Amino acid sequence: MAESSNMVLTHPSISGDLIPLKNFNLLYQTSPSTSPKSTTSPLPDVADALVQYHNEILGGPPVTLTWQDVKVQTLHPDGTRRTLLDRISGFAEPFNLVAIVGAPKSGKTTLLRALSGRLLENESLEGEINLNGRRQQLTYGTAAYLTSEDVICEMLTVEENMYVASVLKLPPEMPMKRKLDIVEQIISDLALKESSSRQVGCCRNSKSLTQGERRRLVLAMEIVMRPRLLYLDEVTDGLKSSAALLYMTKVKLLAGEGRTVVACFQELNQSLFELFDYLLILASGRRVYFGEARFAHEHLTQSGLHSPVEQNLVDYFLQTQSEDYQDVITSMKFLQDLEKADGLGVEVPESIVKTLEVMYESSGICSQMAARLRGISSKKGAVLVHLASHATIATQIMILTYRFFISDLRDLGHYWARFTLSVLAMLLIGTVFANLDHSVESIQERASCLFLVYELLVYMTIGGVPYFHHDAKVFRMERVNVHYGAVAFLAGSFLSSLFILFSTALFPLCFVYFMVGLHPGFRYFFYSFLNLSVSLVASEGLMMTISAIVPVPHAGMIVAACIQTIFMLVAGYIARPNDIPRPIWTYPLSYLSFHRYGLWGLYQNEFLGLKFQQSSNHMNGLQVIHNLYHMNHPGKWGNLMVLLFMGFFYRAIYYILILVEDETMVKWRQNLCALYFQYGTHVPMAMKRFRERTCAAVT
């Protein structure tokens, strides 16, 4: 019988009585036809059997991850370097769950990013990281990286989110029935069957998913492509203890299928601790322990670490390394609980951390792990190739259009609220300006009516900033594992919004156009519809750009309102084009305002071809456009083309912004700080203090 440290995992597809163990050894198992005195012996076809098992279960060979003397440094704006990780070594094998634990700023996430190839541009890596004993890159479908963020499409159900994930992430040549079978199996395996028909979020509806279910759904959407290597970055943060235990239990079962799992934790309890196979403890970027998790408590005890209360020593060590631990002790003393405060007061200062590091380096566990690491590194495993492929660009656009369209239809707070308010507003405007005649006095009324119609419809797009911000967050999270590109995301978003934007322009316009009695004729009505539709497309493009620049949604709405107001002021109605001041307001603001081209096109469409008269006063539409409003060039179709160009221009800017990696933004902020430091000696002391505070804030 294998020891408790070895997980025995059988599978009917492996011939004979072979049982793959965690340490890649195979064991003869007693069978009814053989003597009970069977012996253990490695077989010549061990690797072939294990690869066959992984190919059938996970669609590819196993992945072994090793890292040796990993050192990560970050470059500060003043040119100095800070060491984040210092000579960290370890390994992770199939069927194993390796936990990386440590206090905040201990280097857990940095190590995980280094192992997965996600370091920032200002971070440098030294050391050796191998996959299957080789220096090679991760291929698509081999690994998945998950964080504690559970950003998902809120309006879709669990099944719909999983369906979208399967179409995007599984090979296009795989039959749809096979994809749906995989989805159904994963939903069942991760305990999401009962909530499969519920929406992820329902606007304070009690039927929405719990936090634990959301995290498991994110995990399910990633493992649908059957990755053999999982990186989990503090995925249990913010979960209740029961939800965290259920999540990690499911992760442990995934590891039991042959996956290699590396996870980092900031907090843990005894229940979670018992699920770990190997444990890596970090403190201030240094390794305090790496070995089997079951021996960690005994090693820390022998190293001189003792908890004042009955507590797991690993958990106690993490508590003592937190920044607010001293405040806890002080608070206990203020509460007059001196006995408990004295118990908590057994701190682990930096010198003790150094002692624990030295004790581990001289321990037998360290020697065993080093020998194990050398043995694993010397075995050359399979070369990672692209065994899986994601959907084609056409399929990506189609499925993302479906996802956005379903979300828009179900979201009552975005497009439907805008549509309803637009219809009501147009009814009110129609009753105010009902049945206009063709007198000279009606010129101003027609212009005012068109101005109100245009500005109300355009202004309502400001409400979309939070939704575009959420969509961008979903894209950035899903882009971590490269399931689709920015082109597919932008095209799907654009195509899905066309129906609702056209509806928002058409139905409200029908009410106000015929109630007021604007320019008769279908071609004039059709142009007004096209003008408003393209203006909404341009306005939404601007809102998307603002949502990508301003990190806070509500602040983005304020910025959007200010920009829309400025664009309205220089459009040509509140102040005639010839009366707008030339510097800044005309050049460039008026020419950058899409309101200008939308209003000019509507006015040209409305007034050209009409005649207005009152007693002896006569004025035709051409005189109104040229002499009264000074809206000469371009013509109405030229204005429409400019609107269309601006709609695509704003989306092109949005495309560039969502492609900008987070590390690029960090580098930009640091370059800004470097300029401050370079020229800081030439500013007064007050400005210098302001400069230092600004640099501290942006970095």
From TrEMBL:
Main location per the UniProt record: membrane
GO cellular component terms, semicolon-separated: membrane
Superkingdom in the source lineage: Eukaryota
Bilayer-spanning residue ranges: 382-404, 416-436, 448-468, 488-514, 526-549, 555-575, 637-660
Entry's Gene Ontology molecular function annotations: ABC-type transporter activity; ATP binding; ATP hydrolysis activity
Entry keyword Transport: yes
Family annotation (InterPro entries): AAA+_ATPase (IPR003593), ABC2_TM (IPR013525), ABC_transporter-like_ATP-bd (IPR003439), P-loop_NTPase (IPR027417), Plant_ABCG (IPR052215)
Gene3D superfamilies: P-loop containing nucleotide triphosphate hydrolases
SUPFAM superfamilies: P-loop containing nucleoside triphosphate hydrolases
ABC transporter domain residues: 70-309
Recorded topology in the membrane: Multi-pass membrane protein
Pfam families (UniProt xref): ABC2_membrane, ABC_tran
Keywords from the named record: ATP-binding, Chloroplast, Membrane, Nucleotide-binding, Plastid, Transmembrane, Transmembrane helix, Transport
Subcellular location: Membrane
Family that this chain belongs to: Belongs to the ABC transporter superfamily. ABCG family. Eye pigment precursor importer (TC 3.A.1.204) subfamily.
Protein's UniProt name: ABC transporter domain-containing protein
The species this protein was found in: Ceratopteris richardii
